C-alpha cells in the first residue's frame, strides 16, 4: 500500500495524531503532535482515513519510551509514548476547547490538575477472552488497538492493579486448560483495599474439574473467584464462600471519620482508587459543605460522595437509577453510623420534577453523571435557592454543554474547572467544575 510523508498537526480525542493528505483528515496511531512521519493508510472511510506509522522521521521532544511491551498492539492505552506532563496538557486543552466551542464559556479560574500514580492504578475492568485456533491457545486481554474485534495477545498489563497486572498470561493459561475454554467470553476484575475479585462469565455450566481449577487459582494467587452464568444478578462467589470487597475514603478533615464502602464486583466504582481520594478532597474543597447545608447528590451510585458529605451537613439525599446501588448505598450509610443520608431510586434521564426530592429546597448540588451528562436534570433543577454546584464529569463535551445551560438558563457563573487524570496513558478526560451564583 502507498506510503505518505506527513507532519502531525493535532491530536484526536482518542490520542491519535492528526494530519491531512489531499485535504482529507488522516488519524495516525502512535504519532504525536509536531512529528514528521512516514505513514501507511490501513483503513479508508468516506470522510477520513486511519493510518499507522511506518517510520518516525522527526520525533517530538515529548516522546518517551512506552513502559508496556504491548503498547501499540493493545488498545488499553493510547498515550504511553507521551510524557506525563504533556498528557495532562493535552487533556486540559481538550477541556478548554470543549468549553469554548460547545458551552461558549470559560472558567474564571483553572484549577491545577489532579494526578496520582500512573501505573497499577486500574482497580476495575473487563478482560476479553478468546480461543484463537491459529495461535493454538486462549488469549486474555483488552481489545487490539488496530482492530477492536480481536483480543490483544498480552502477558501482563502495567496499568492494572499490581496483584493482577503481571498475571494476565497466567489467566490465559488457566482458561486454556479448562473444559469450558471456548465458553468463557470475559473476565471482569474488581479490587477493594484488601481483596481482588475475578468474575468469570461462562456460557454453559462449568464442570467440577473447571470449578476446582478456578478455586485452586484463587487460593494460589489470593483472588476471590466469582461465577456469572447469566445476567448481572447471576453473579455469585465460588471461593471463598463470603468474600468482602470494600474501600475506604480517608477524611480530608481530622474532625471527621473515614468512610468505608462495601461493593459487589460488578458495581460501578471509580476505576482509580488514588484519584478517587484526591477527587474527594477537591470536591469537598469546592462544595464547601457547612453544618446547616442541605445537599442533593445526583447520580450518587454507592454513595461515594454522599456519605463523606453526610458527615459534614444537616441533610443529604443521594439519587441513583440503579436499584441495587441504592440498596448498597443505604447499607453503607448504616454500616458507617450515618443516619441523616437518604437515598432514592430514580431514572435521571427522565423527567423527575414531580418527585419529592426534586421539589425540595437544596443549598448545594453535586452532579456526577455518566457520559451523557445531566441536561435532562437541568430542565427542572437547580431551583433558585441553590447557590453552589459541583459537577464531576467523565466527558468534556457533555460538561461543556451543561455548563452553557447553567450559565445561560440558570444564571450561574463557571467559577473554576480543571482536569483529573483518572485514566493515565489514555485520552480519557475526567474533570471537575464549580458553578456559583
From TrEMBL:
Its EC number is 2.1.1.190. Signal peptide: none annotated. S-adenosyl-L-methionine binds at residues 270, 299, 304, 320, 347, 368. [4Fe-4S] cluster binds at residues 68, 74, 77, 157. GO terms for biological process: methylation. GO terms for molecular function: methyltransferase activity. PROSITE patterns: SAM_MT_RNA_M5U (PS51687), TRAM (PS50926), TRMA_1 (PS01230), TRMA_2 (PS01231). Keywords: 4Fe-4S, Iron, Iron-sulfur, Metal-binding, Methyltransferase, rRNA processing, S-adenosyl-L-methionine, Transferase. Gene3D superfamilies: 2.40.50.1070, Nucleic acid-binding proteins, Vaccinia Virus protein VP39. The active site is at 394 (nucleophile), 394. Pfam families: TRAM (PF01938), tRNA_U5-meth_tr (PF05958). It catalyses: uridine(1939) in 23S rRNA + S-adenosyl-L-methionine = 5-methyluridine(1939) in 23S rRNA + S-adenosyl-L-homocysteine + H(+). The keyword Transmembrane helix does not apply. Catalyzes the formation of 5-methyl-uridine at position 1939 (m5U1939) in 23S rRNA. This is 23S rRNA (uracil(1939)-C(5))-methyltransferase RlmD. It comes from Dyella halodurans. The lineage of its organism: Bacteria, Pseudomonadati, Pseudomonadota, Gammaproteobacteria, Lysobacterales.
Amino acid at each position: 500500500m502507498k506510503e505518505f510523508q506527513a507532519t502531525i498537526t493535532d491530536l484526536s480525542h482518542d490520542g491519535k495524531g492528526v494530519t491531512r493528505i489531499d485535504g482529507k483528515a488522516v488519524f495516525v496511531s502512535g504519532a504525536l503532535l509536531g512529528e514528521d512521519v512516514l505513514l501507511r493508510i490501513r483503513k479508508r472511510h468516506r470522510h477520513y482515513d486511519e493510518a499507522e506509522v511506518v517510520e518516525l522521521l522527526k520525533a517530538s521532544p515529548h516522546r518517551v519510551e512506552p513502559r508496556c511491551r504491548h503498547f501499540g498492539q493493545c488498545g488499553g492505552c493510547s498515550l504511553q509514548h507521551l510524557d506525563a506532563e504533556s498528557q495532562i496538557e493535552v487533556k486540559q486543552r481538550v477541556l478548554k476547547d470543549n468549553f469554548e466551542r460547545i458551552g461558549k464559556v470559560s472558567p474564571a479560574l483553572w484549577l491545577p490538575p489532579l494526578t496520582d500514580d500512573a501505573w497499577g492504578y486500574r482497580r476495575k475492568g473487563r478482560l476479553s477472552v478468546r480461543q484463537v485456533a491459529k495461535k493454538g491457545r486462549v488469549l486474555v486481554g483488552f481489545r487490539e488497538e488496530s482492530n477492536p474485534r480481536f483480543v490483544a495477545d498480552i502477558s501482563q498489563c502495567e496499568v492494572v492493579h499490581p496483584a493482577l497486572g503481571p498475571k494476565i498470561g497466567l489467566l490465559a493459561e488457566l482458561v486454556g486448560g479448562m473444559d469450558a475454554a471456548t465458553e468463557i467470553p470475559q473476565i471482569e476484575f474488581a479490587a477493594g483495599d484488601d481483596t481482588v475479585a475475578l468474575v468469570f462469565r461462562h456460557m454453559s455450566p462449568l464442570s467440577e474439574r473447571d470449578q476446582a481449577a478456578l478455586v485452586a487459582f484463587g487460593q494460589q494467587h489470593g483472588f476471590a473467584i466469582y461465577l456469572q452464568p447469566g445476567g448481572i444478578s447471576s453473579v455469585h462467589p465460588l471461593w471463598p464462600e463470603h468474600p468482602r470487597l470494600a474501600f475506604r475514603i480517608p477524611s480530608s478533615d481530622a474532625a471527621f471519620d473515614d468512610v468505608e464502602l462495601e461493593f459487589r464486583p460488578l458495581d460501578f466504582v471509580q476505576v482509580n482508587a488514588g484519584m478517587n481520594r484526591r477527587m474527594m478532597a477537591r470536591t469537598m474543597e469546592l462544595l464547601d459543605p457547612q453544618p446547616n447545608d442541605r445537599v442533593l447528590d445526583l447520580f450518587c451510585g454507592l454513595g461515594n460522595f454522599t456519605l463523606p458529605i453526610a458527615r459534614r451537613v444537616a441533610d443529604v439525599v443521594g439519587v441513583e437509577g440503579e436499584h441495587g446501588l441504592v440498596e448498597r448505598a443505604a447499607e453503607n450509610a448504616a454500616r458507617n453510623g450515618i443516619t441523616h443520608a437518604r437515598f432514592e431510586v430514580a431514572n435521571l434521564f427522565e423527567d423527575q420534577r414531580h418527585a419529592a426530592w426534586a421539589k425540595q429546597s437544596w443549598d448545594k448540588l453535586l452532579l456526577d453523571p455518566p457520559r451523557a451528562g445531566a441536561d435532562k436534570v437541568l430542565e427542572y433543577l437547580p431551583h433558585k435557592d441553590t447557590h453552589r454546584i459541583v459537577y464531576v464529569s467523565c466527558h468534556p463535551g457533555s460538561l461543556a454543554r451543561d455548563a452553557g445551560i447553567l450559565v445561560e438558563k440558570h444564571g450561574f457563573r463557571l467559577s473554576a474547572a480543571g482536569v483529573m487524570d483518572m485514566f493515565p496513558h489514555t485520552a480519557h478526560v475526567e474533570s471537575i467544575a464549580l458553578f456559583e451564583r
